[in-house]
Design goal:
Blueprint (H helix, E strand, L loop, with lengths): L1 H10 L2 H27 L4 H26 L6 E4 H22 L4 H24 L1 E3 L1 E5 L1 H22 L4 H5 L1 H18 L1 E5 L9 E2 L1 H48 L2 H23 L4 E5 L5 E4 L1 H7 L12 H10 L7 H14 L1 E6 L5 E8 L5 E7 L1 H15 L9 H14 L5 E8 L2 H8 L1 H18 L5 E6 L2 E7 L4 H16 L2 E3 L2 E3 L3 E8 L6 H18 L4 E3 L2 H23 L2 E10 L5 E12 L3 E3 L1 H11 L2 H16 L7 E5 L2 H6 L2 H12 L6 E5 L8 H14 L2 E7 L6 H6 L4 E4 L1 H5 L5 H16 L3 E4 L5 H10 L3 E2 L13 H7 L7 H4 L1
Parallel strand pairs: 16-17, 19-21, 21-22, 22-23, 23-24, 24-25, 25-26
Antiparallel strand pairs: 1-2, 1-5, 3-4, 6-7, 6-10, 8-9, 9-10, 11-13, 11-16, 12-13, 14-15, 18-19, 18-26, 19-20
Helix pairs in contact: 1-8, 2-3, 2-8, 2-9, 3-4, 3-5, 3-9, 4-5, 5-6, 5-8, 6-8, 16-17, 17-18, 20-21, 22-24
Length: about 850
Amino acid sequence: MLRVYACIVQEHDLRLVVVAVIICLLASCIAFSAFKQAQRDKTREPLWTALTAIVAGLGIWATHFVAMLAFEPNLPVGYDIGTTLMSVVVAVVVSGMGWRVALDPRPATVALGGAIVGVGVATMHFIGMGALEIAGLMVWDRSLVMASIGLGVVLSALAVRLSRSSSRVLARSAPLVLALAICALHFVAMAAVRIYPGNAVDLTGGAVDSATLATVVTAGILLIMLAGFGLLSFERTLARVQLDEAAQRSALAEQILQTAAERDALTAQLQREAELSTAALENMVHGLSVYDENERLVVFNQKYAELYGIPAHLLVPGTPFFDIREHLVASGTFPDNDEFYHNILSAKREEGGRFEVSLLDGRIVEVRMKRMPSGGRLATHEDVTAARKSAQEIAWLAAHDALTGLPNRTAFARKLAAALADAPDPHLAMLTIDLDRFKEVNDTLGHPFGDRILRHAAERLSELAGTDDVVTRLGGDEFAVIQLGVSDPVAAGELAARIIDALDRPFEFEGHTVVIGASIGIALAPRDSANPDELMQMSDLALYRAKAESRGTHRFFEPGMDARLRERRSIEAGLRVAIREGQFEVLYQPQLDLRSGAISGFEALVRWNHPTRGVIQPLDFIPVAEDTSLIIPIGEWVLRQACRDAARWPEDVKVAVNLSPAQFKRGDLIAVTMNALAAANLAPGRLELEITESVLLHDETWVRSVLDRLTAFGVGIALDDFGTGYSSLSYLRSFPFSKIKIDRSFVADLAGASDCRAIVQATIQLSEKLGMRTTAEGVETAEQLDILAHEGCTQVQGFRISRPVPALAVPALLDRYAPDYGRVARVV
């Protein structure tokens, strides 16, 4: 769906898309009008069927080519005139076959005819695409092609089937469904094609340009409108003739009614209507009762008797309501309470309107009463017990979390506001709780397992909270507690410590033992604030501090935390300006090949040149960009710029670009990568994309499919920061990595810590066995470089080789480390 949406919004002129949709809907309406005439007028059925085929075929064709005029590939485009003319003929002929088949009234045949119309739409579209001549290579996504054909055929069959429906509403929706079938097929099919610029395809001399095509399409549209106006004129003429015939029949009927025989027939009709009224009364969903001005029963239906359990001897017209009431009291249906009748029934009976009666068996009956001019009353009675219970359940769900049964965020906010507003000097603590390591467990063991942990965590919190305290689930793995009657931080801190201890105890399910823990932020009222929104925000800030400093602990709000939040917001606002004004710069850190002594690649590193604060390092703004999804436009810009700069380097020098998990979630990474390569005219084999293990935790199957396709294009994939996360060996088997990057934390202690050297040695040997290269990051000393060379590491990067440099300084670095200049020994 994202691909179809991006195709419409980013690759089409939306104004012409709207025109195409209007043309499609207009042609569908006219086609179905002609189709209905073909059904009614059997003498001229072939003519109407032909008109339907022409209008529908031209409409399909015009919709396609207006939408093609809206298509903006930013490449020279032409249309082969022979194939274009063939497409309109195919649209008319194939759809005409479908309309002819659909004249058969059998439902299955009608649907088959609609499916043939859908086949005509699909055939026309892909022949029309065959007429497209463009200076580029078109690559089709087969799954989207099949989806577009399926949508067109199924929706077309549904549209024609709806047109034969006895329901007027469904029949009138048929043109809209057919228009949806045509448009859905077109735009899903357009989303299925990728066009890569190239010089391999030249426009033929006989190709029709867009202006000529627009003229031809306009002529087609005029034909559709002419057919529509002709059809409307015919229908109006036919309607006038039918009205005249109806008037004549009416006059004749009036003459017949004057006869005695007609009066007898009218009497019989009145008798039948009385019988129908009685049948309608007995088949009403609601109970009905009519009492006269003396409170005596006049009319009722069986539903009324069944609803209250009134016996037959009390249902004789003229029975006083008092007798019926006495029976209902004796049978235990109504309470033996005069106030019940005087305050509810009697008062409502005088005033009329609607009210509810609660019966002793738990049922609730809604009574709608109306006073009649004679002084009596008419009432309907409906059992609304199930509806009221459903309403109560809905109200409960609106205020509670469905998974844990705790109050949800909305209800929690109301309770917090009430607690702060009701007391003249409120004292309470707001504790915001976040489960540590929950996401890792959820991703590893699955969401059902994670849901069980959340439910048990909620139970532990409820057991620890006081009777007046409020426990809630704010969402995800975040909970909160309102601790009432807290006048100092000690009690709040003690509760937080008990919560941390309780949630640190292992959770055991189905042979799994899981330890997650919790971090807590605390804000106190009125010490910190008496405003509910500010108090929740302050508690969140304290939680951020607890998670940043040391998980499994609690922190109280401090004024300085607010300043850090403002700093974060300032960075976010500045990033938006930086993206808009192009304040970023890409620096390149060389990657030295230890076998040749030459630079074999550069890693692209982004810097933010702030107009007032100077250069801002990635660690200061990348986390904010990740949290706000601003990393997506930043990452795309870095990828395009790195490809442009690398295109000016020697052909044996690669460029490495880091990818964010957010860029994978966007869903268009392949298209973005290929567009960047094509725009820079850079060979895919010279680009290397670096990902961390966090990318692999989201949707392993989908991520693998993306990486496999990038690898098939020739793009290299490197696993960055290896050894700092899960470091699962299954990742190395399942994903197409060409390189492993050893994290700088192991390189830093390489000379001193024996375990670091053992890890680096094992990683290098494992990479060699799997046919992968290794790159060690953070190399700063000659000793580190010597050890890595001795262990067989493929590449190194770090300050020992060079600091990151601007693109203009890359040629000098390449000359400095030319193959005939220095080997590893000279660097050391």
